[in-house]
Amino acid sequence: MKRAPRLIPALLLVLGAVPAVAQQLTVVNFGGANGAAQKKAFYEPFEKSAGAKVVPVEYNGEQAKIKAMVEARKVTWDVVEAESADLDRGCDEGLYERLDWSRLGGKADFLPAAVHECGVGVFVWSSALAYDAGRLKEPPRGWADFWDVKRFPGKRALRKAARFNLEFALMADGVKPAEVYRVLATPEGTERAFRKLGELKPHLQWWETGAQAPQFLVAGDVVMASAYNGRIETARREGRDLRLVWTGSIYDLDFWSIPKGSPNRDLALRFIAQAITPQRQAEFARLISYGPTHLKAFNGLDPKVLAQLPTAPANVKDALKFDFRFWSDQGEALEKRFAAWAAQ
């Protein structure tokens, strides 16, 4: 013990020589081609500039996981890519931090739809009708053709969820895109949508992750599918003869959000601030065909890239804007009904 005081300075020198462990930031995304593009456009540049390690986690939008973390006060996720309706409802329930927009460069340079008190829009994406051009004699023109199993025989694939499918069903039943949510908001409209879905149920194969829709098409399991436009364009770049029908497509935004109680809130804000710059957003759009939310990001994009985005005038002309307020208010009840219906 008498020698301990002499050892302390030497011990401090040794400890001082140990390099500091880099901070880790857990970022949750939807995986697949989307996650791969995020890695190159967002994660790797941030790791270089911030000296932090980004740990990606894939999920399928399970808000129950976030709610469980927040309520238990054991939050291990720092940044979450959230769909608009989930973000809006989760913000009301106190699951997400309110963002300090002064640290994100302000709101003026973003699409109005990208600005939310609990999130900032990452990109604009579309859920559209996709098909295998090599297996169909003629191309489908919209959701009515998707439902026409006599003229277009074969299995179809839809996401295993109420949202989007109820809208697609109404459009297949003759409702114009501009009237979809007015009809769906009524009990009669909801019944109509589920009845129309029931017509197609024997011919359906469900997908639960964005990567599965193009995989089902490429494997020949289905001839048509609802799919995220960026996943189909990525498959086309890989040489697959998959096509999109933009008529009746539904476009929306995904948002960066921070779960309430994140242990790395400051680092999370720094990550988001860098990821939403025009340079990073333009690079993301080059890697996968999802539209930027920062208005200045469009200036650096090639016309060929712009033409494949959901925001291109020709693509958005006959499309439907996803009503996240409707789904934030009524989504829980509709999803429960859908789950019971799908299980029958």
Could you name the key traits of this structure?
344 residues, alpha/beta, D-Maltodextrin-Binding Protein, domain 2, 2 domains, 19% strand
Write the layout of secondary structure elements.
Layout: H1 4-17, E1 24-29, H2 32-50, E2 53-58, H3 63-72, E3 79-83, H4 84-92, E4 115-116, E5 119-132, H5 143-147, E6 156-159, H6 165-172, H7 180-184, H8 187-200, E7 204-207, H9 212-219, E8 224-228, H10 229-237, E9 242-257, H11 265-275, H12 278-287, H13 303-306, H14 313-316, E10 320-321, H15 324-343
Parallel strand pairs: 1-2, 1-3, 6-7, 6-8, 9-10
Antiparallel strand pairs: 3-9, 4-5, 5-8, 5-9
Helix pairs in contact: 2-12, 4-15, 6-8
Characterize the largest beta sheet: strand count, sense, and whether it forms a barrel.
Answer: 10 strands, mixed
Helical percentage = 40-55%
In CATH, the architecture of the largest domain is 3-Layer(aba) Sandwich
How far apart, in Å, are the first and last alpha carbons?
75 Å
**Poorly predicted parts:** 1-5, 7-19
Structural domains: how many: 2
Counted by DSSP, the helix tally is 15
pLDDT averaged residue by residue: 92
N-to-C series of helices and strands: HEHEHEHEEHEHHHEHEHEHHHHEH
Question: What is the CATH topology descriptor of the largest domain?
Answer: D-Maltodextrin-Binding Protein, domain 2
Q: State which percent range the strand residues make up.
A: 15-25%
**Can you tell me the CATH superfamily of the largest domain?**
Periplasmic binding protein-like II
Look at the helices and sheets and give the structural class. alpha/beta
CATH class of the largest domain: Alpha Beta
Give the strand tally: 10
Radius of gyration: 23 Å
> What general outline do the C-alpha atoms trace?
globular
